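Thread: quick sanity check before group meeting

JM: Hey all, I'm pulling together slides for Thursday and realized we never actually wrote out the predicted structure for the chain we discussed last week. Dropping the sequence here so it's in one place. If anyone has concerns about the input, flag it before I start.
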Amino acid sequence: MNPIRKKKLEAEILRILATLILEGEVKDPRIFLPSFHRIDISDDLRQATVYFTAFCNNNERKKLTAGLVSCSGFFTSRIGKILGLHTNPRIHFAWDNNYIKSLEVNRLIDESKPQ
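JM (edit): ok, ran it. Output follows.
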């Protein structure tokens, strides 16, 4: 797949996911404003892993992840209808530990700067 088309498709899927949650189309009470950071789509467009974080503790994180996983069929269906793709990617969700680590590294760099 063309890498430019793939990047555009990734950005559009993230936009659709955020819009569905913000506009209240997702009725699951476990889903409370996740931040979607990146997405990895397979070259055949059959699988998509969405990496997310949220401001919450471990227990709430598990509930949020379970809520997103239970709504993945709804997300797949809506993405297919909106984008009109021949093959709808199956959406998987994963907590983005890399983003959390990068925030910690940035904090350490800011602390080490001379004042």
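AS: nice. The chain has one domain: 3-112. The first strand starts at residue 35 and ends at 41.
JM: adding both to the slides.
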